[in-house]
Amino acid sequence: MDKLVIEGGRPLFGEISISGAKNAALPLIAATLLAPGLHTLRNVPNLRDTRTISRLLESFGACVTSAADGVMTVNADNITNLEASYELVKTMRASVLVLGPLLARFGRARVSLPGGCAIGARPIDFHLQALQKMGVRLELAAGYVDAVVDGTLQGAPIFFDIPSVTGTENILMAAVLAKGTTIIKNAAREPEVGNLVEMLQAMGADIEGKDSDLLTVRGVSRLKAVDSSVIPDRIETGTYLIAVGAAGGDVTVNNCRPNHLPSLLHKLRSAGLTIEEGDTSIRVVRNGPLKSVDVQTRPYPGFPTDLQAQIMALMAMTDGGLSVIHETIFENRFMHVAELLRLGANIRVDGRSAIVKGTGGFTGAKVMATDLRASASLVIAALAAKGVTEISRIYHLERGYDNLAGKLRAIGARVQQMPE
Ligand code: EPU
What we know:
- It is a single chain.
- The protein is built from 14 helices and 24 strands.
- By secondary structure, it is α/β, with parallel strands linked by helices.
- The protein is 32% helix and 26% strand.
- Uridine-diphosphate-2(N-acetylglucosaminyl) butyric acid (EPU) binds next to helix 1, helix 5, helix 6 and helix 12.
């Protein structure tokens, strides 16, 4: 296992380039299961999670190639196994995204239940209830969901109590080949769902309502293989913007979509940072004191839960300011708090709220990464901290940040990756 050693307190300057979005790449890769032929996916980030889902597809019999330039090809002509094993699913919950496409094309699938995770219980009951409405018979046994389509997969009206991102994606992928019309109400509007809708439309699917909370899918009898691109990662973008806010400096983040970060950019401006938006770039400059802002995580276009830990690190650095950070999406997403305290933060957790009192800065210490975004918040704190911070268990970061240490070094950070 590797650790990151960060010598903090150095402002960051220069340019950084954003990779493809993890949470868009995963459903796009899963969607290749829907049609035979050779699919090409571009801008696929080089991450542990994209490698895991590739291995999952290979375990079904698909042929996957990945090149260093982010081009992935998938040929799903010869699918011989329809079981997603516990060994793969336990390392990545998003493996559940294969359920919809396998049922749509082959009428059956056996997928391990994901189990608990570091940020909350995260059930998949919405996915399963919606599939049942579409005519899927489910049995839960030995930790697996055995799913079989009774006759033909049928379009159905679906309502999500909470707009679930992977739930919406799974049902979209099931509905495109179902008989009849599926209407998904209270669908997730995250840009990653829109990226999947675009790919499915290019494959020949009939979907209306992209980027809205009402998706209408008229099933078609077959889809074709396509050439698609993964959108830039808005969470990676946000993480680097916040890092510059914390460490200070002047950085231009390239190859990103400023319009995918409305809530974060608003908060960063309110926090006193200068933000200049281009079409595909964002310049961030810190040239004054940080101000505290309150944050509530919400489904898109609200403030993303995947940036909650990172903005908390920034708020912990104000000069005595008070910020209330309320997490509404996941019930246990404050694992970073105890580690930020080790770096000198003053944060009190009360249920789903964290009350953050700025201490003016951090001091380096040894800390431990607990989940992907919690780890990113520790990197941000470490970049700003006086002295040296050692972050252990960085395999979490490798799940979602492509070449994190290299990108940070390119803007002047002192970051080394070494064995623990
Ligand atoms: N929920 C249920 N039942 C379900 C599905 C969801 O109760 O069947 C609840 C969840 O427990 C949560 C809420 O609904 O309280 C929303 O969860 P959602 O289903 O939207 O989350 P997800 O699809 O499992 C994706 C991202 C997460 C991101 C969330 C929220 C992917 C692969 N994962 O998860 O990303 O935090 O949406 O935006 O797209 C990350 O990248 O670090 C990450 C955790």
